């Protein structure tokens, strides 16, 4: 009798007692310690040079897609990642992975408002030089504070350990879910993003290597994922046989107190206190709005744990991190499209108010890289070290000024700071982001600005001239051309082109209006956040501090 009643109940409604291991951490170590490590001179496994018989090896001419193709290449897929389905998926083409903010895997952006342009060299122009600034590939989560996957896992584990936890319906998967993520480092998929970027960069810009008469210097910072990202880029760009011989990798120390233009927050105290943290204050207000329906819904499927808004943020984060680390996540399909839009916006708020135009310490943090850029563009060594630049590294060896190609690896927050310093105002056009709703006319989307492997490319060109002299510059972010309307002297141009001298003097003017000392070091509180729209403390209010 009892059995037959049970059979009438849909399986998804039966609450399941959870093993006390739910949420526990599982880690794997490879190779197994007893296996030892491989050595390059193992007589049992001679390397290719000893074995010989390599067959033919000519590599042919450099690829030059940027000048020879008729259609620009675009990245539209996510390699081996399983594309998640949101809850109640409709007929549309909604893509959860495009709603993960800075945790979105790389994908080409369609347009930043110049729909008739692409990254192929415009007619009448010739490419002389490129400046690449890119983010590392997908990483494991950092931190265990509230709202992180680790925090959610330990909350769940604590509840399961008391023996009272019961899950049902869409949360049933939690009964044997364990926390499998590492911390901080590059994931296997992140490795692929960097390899892909290196390959794409060689296929697009390989021709420029002909302009080198010594080895290129590429730069990264010392964190493990930064070094791994740079080396994987180099493997993609130079090939696995050559990458150690074909270029120099500069690794700049990334640590508190060290000057480093690619990790500039470390020497800007206001990036690391309540001012820098403002984005978390703002986005917490929004989380309380957009996650209320999900809190109600999911709470019905769990007993023995009172879910909080932070737990739900942690669950959305877990979808993002499990997907880019493990290839698949059960957490993605417990939130609907609207909730994923809410999560994307939660990240937009974080970046706007902590790492973007809405934070008064942010324009200052991009000053060091922009000083370096101007130094490279004008081939004039930096002589005053008054930002995050490091005088020890400012020499021909570690900071050459005559390369046809520059490659720098950095972080999401440094990239968005540099966009603010460069006054890429098309991103911030519609002003401060409200914390109680998603605005209809939004222009600031973090998944387009700073996804994993995000990359900004400056193309230096000679246009409509027989001379080899560079005449123009333009900027391409994630394969879409950036309008340069915020830089004085750069007129509206359908290809995003700006005359080089106007660009240089516009940026010099921009640097002159940024008060590095004040914005990074002064003791102030954030005034009305609506007054901060270009990453600076409002000059008119400085006298009150
Ligand atoms: C500058 O860089 C050098 C080389 O990495 C390092 O030894 C030195 O500590 C750095 N100085 C500062 C102030 O960061
Ligand atoms: C590091 O930056 C500070 C502040 O801009 C500057 O005073 C100092 O000289 C720099 N140190 C080096 C080694 O460049
Ligand atoms: C930066 O952009 C803002 C908004 O377009 C503009 O008012 C300001 O003059 C720009 N700054 C410079 C130095 O071009
Ligand atoms: C840094 O030095 C340069 C060159 O002397 C100067 O033009 C600029 O105003 C200085 N910037 C700051 C933030 O002091
Ligand atoms: C900043 O100013 C406030 C108010 O005057 C003061 O209480 C605080 O100690 C100051 N903080 C620092 C780091 O000087």
UniProtKB/TrEMBL annotation:
Signal sequence segment: 1-15
Keywords, ordered alphabetically: Hydrolase, Signal
Location of the region described as Disordered in the Swiss-Prot/TrEMBL record: 32-61
PROSITE patterns named in the record: HIS_ACID_PHOSPHAT_1
MF annotations from Gene Ontology: acid phosphatase activity
Keyword Signal set for record: yes
Protein name, entry field: Phosphoglycerate mutase-like protein
Organism: Pleurotus ostreatus
Upper lineage: Eukaryota, Fungi, Dikarya, Basidiomycota, Agaricomycotina
